[in-house]
Design brief:
single chain, mainly beta, five-stranded mixed beta barrel, five-stranded mixed β-barrel, globular
């Protein structure tokens, strides 16, 4: 499985967590990671909702994800937005490449920018929107 994500990147609410898109059985919705269950398995919840869903991380356009699937979007230093295929404590895999990640908007730090779902000073509606979902 590799090193799991640090628990500080997910939890009981959306603050300081990694933003995801997942299919709740009806449609693709924006949410956040509640708990990691495996290298590509996560418990997620939609913003403003405590109901959790077990999802598998997939590499596809989030509008096309099926029930039980989720995506994590990142922005590369060249400003290209892509999907994560695997994520661990310090690196993630995008298009077959292992890269460091952070929440920074820098385009020259050598790390990909991952979407943050919100924090104590920035609500989920005001963070960087890589998915184009407005959340």
């Amino acid at each position: 499985m590799g090193r799991p994500l640090a628990k500080r990147f997910f939890g009981a609410d959306e603050n300081n967590n990694i933003k995801v898109q997942f299919n709740n059985g009806t449609s693709s919705v924006a949410g956040y990671i509640v708990r990691q269950k495996g290298s590509k398995k996560f418990l997620v919840a939609a913003f403003g909702n405590t109901t959790t869903y077990s999802c598998t991380l997939v590499d596809k356009d989030s509008a096309n994800i099926a029930a039980g699937e989720m995506t994590i979007s990142v922005k590369l230093d060249n400003t290209t937005v892509d999907q994560v295929t695997k994520i661990s404590a310090h690196t993630l895999t995008v298009a077959g490449n292992k890269l460091p990640w952070n929440f920074s908007t820098s385009t020259s730090d050598g790390a990909v920018q991952i979407e943050e779902s919100g924090n104590s000073t920035v609500s989920s509606s005001n963070v960087t929107d890589l998915e184009g979902d407005g959340a």
